[in-house]
Design a protein that fits this description.
This is Metalloregulator ArsR/SmtB family transcription factor. With about 110 residues, this protein is α+β, with helices and mostly antiparallel strands. The protein has 6 helices and 3 strands; from the N terminus they run ααβααββαα. A hairpin with a 2-residue loop joins strand 2 and strand 3.
Length: about 110
């Protein structure tokens, strides 16, 4: 539990969780949303992962991150972010990105059948 509180104590980490609310992102996509070094973002991602709030998956040369879906803590964090003036727009961006990716995947599946 201590790791979770430590992870959520950082505004940057809470923003990362908001970005990952509805869609997975690569480490580069996450870093591109912040004006800090990639090693700093990597450290924040490591803290979130150690707390069990996110998981990573390596695909080729890229590492993708996503929230742990069945985590009560992520559910509570998402609820709080909906009321937060900083987190709410980031969650909307995440939802919009997830929708774009769903449409792209559906279009790709449709073109494979032709």
């Amino acid at each position: 539990m201590q790791r979770v509180f430590e992870a959520l104590s950082s505004a940057v980490r809470r923003k990362i969780l908001a970005y990952l609310a509805h869609s997975e992102l690569s480490a580069g996509e996450i870093a591109g949303r912040f004006s800090m070094s990639k090693p700093s973002i990597s450290q924040h991602l490591s803290v979130l992962e150690a707390a069990g709030l996110i998981v990573r998956e390596k695909r080729g040369q890229f590492v993708f991150y996503r929230q742990v879906e069945d985590s009560l803590l992520n559910t509570l964090n998402g609820f709080v972010q909906e009321a937060c003036p900083v987190g709410r727009p980031l969650r909307r961006e995440s939802a919009a990105l997830a929708e774009v990716r769903r449409r792209e995947a559906a279009d790709a599946d449709g073109s494979d059948r032709s």
